Each structure stands twice: as C-alpha cells, then as structure tokens.
Amino acid sequence: MQRYFLEEPYQQKDRFVLVGEPYHHITRVMRMTPEDRVYLAFSDQVAIIAEITAITENEVELKEVMKEQGQKELPSMITIASGYPKGEKLDWIVQKGTELGAHAFLGFPAKTSVVKWDEKKRNKRQQRLAKIAQEAAEQAHRQVVPQVELLSTASEFYQQISSYDKVLVAYEESAKRGELANLAQALQKSGSGLRILAIFGPEGGLTTDEVEKLSAEGAVICGLGPRILRTETAPLYLLSAASYQWELLGEQDGK
Question: Residue limits of the Ribosomal RNA small subunit methyltransferase E PUA-like domain (predicted)?
C-alpha cells in the first residue's frame, strides 16, 4: 500500500481529506478508486490504514480502517551530520539513511570539504534532498519523514551541537589506532528518547583541530571497526549498528 505523510498530529475523525500532491498522486499516478486503501502517517508517529470513500475534482476522502501496528522508528533520534562531500553522495546518504532509521540530516562545510554552494544552489539541493527523504520514508514505511538542513557555515553547525543529548564523532584515526569500543558503549548507554548527533567528515575526513574541538565539547570519538569506510558508507554503518543494538538485541540501558 502507498503511504502518505500528513504534517499534523493524529485525531480520530469520521473522514480524512487529501488534497494537493497526495491527491494528484492517488488520482493521476496510482489511478486509485473508492475502496482502495492507503497508509496515512501523521506527525506524531501514528499511522493508520485508510480506505478511499470518494474522489472529487479536488479531494480524496478516506475513512479510517485500523491503526498500523508496531513501532517503525528507532527508540532514540539520530541526526546524521555530514561534512559536505563531492557529487551526489549526499543523495545516497539521505536515501539509505532514511531507510535505516535516521531522524534528520545536517550538512555542513567541513575544513576539507571541496564543495562550495551559494544560497540559491544550497536551497535547491536541500529541496531535492527533502524529496529524496520523503520518497525513501514512503518506501521504508517510516512513521516520520526525516528533516534535511544544509548549513552555510561551520559556526552554524557548532552552535547546534549543545541541543543534543549525545554527540558521536566518527574518526578514522581512532579506527587506525585500534579503538573499537566507544561506539558500542555509547549506543548501549543511550536511553530511549535521546537526541543523538552523529558527525562524519567528507572524503578528506575531519581534521585534528575539528576533532579536538568536538571532543572539548563532550563528543565521543568513535572508530567504526578496523576498516576505513567511505564518507557515504560510514553513516550507514552507524545506523545499522544502532538498529542491531537497540532493535534486535534490545539493549539500551540509559546509563
């Protein structure tokens, strides 16, 4: 079934109405008819199965059939922060990161970032990434669509760090030195409902100065296993590790 995201919390109603882009997708792309069913996902992580009851010139009317069962979101909210990489790598990070449960994405100009965008290009890219996140959320049956924000300066990025409960920094030099425990310990000791920021460098990695600055602000510096991962692979490794730790093992003690 198709999934449509609504920017409002769930309220029990006799009927739900879709207009605009969802209307166009249902009527023109999917060519649905009354009695067809879809998922409606609300901003408070409630999702329902709804049946189309009528289609007018401008609206699709639906009735609730039942609530979707099961939790689809990670128990803690992980924001992936990527130093701007080259090419279309952010597209991949957002698409696959959404499938793996990321709560949000931040892009920032790291010291080794080669990419330089003016405001117009940055806004256009942010809109493109937001669309990629929505499509991936629909495909993965997420209950929320991750937010995407592309920052213009590193100072904007550092100002946001204090708003998170825990900050993790993926650093290849830690992996080279054989550090293997910090990530596992950080994930195990993250209680549910936390806001976690996971930071990744671009192709050239994070500089020593950047890592020292983040460490001074309380970030946990982590190696991601014994191999050196690409900038677009590392976030997926961390999200997969979090899913395994929290959802498959069910270990999250909050200490």
Answer: 23-64
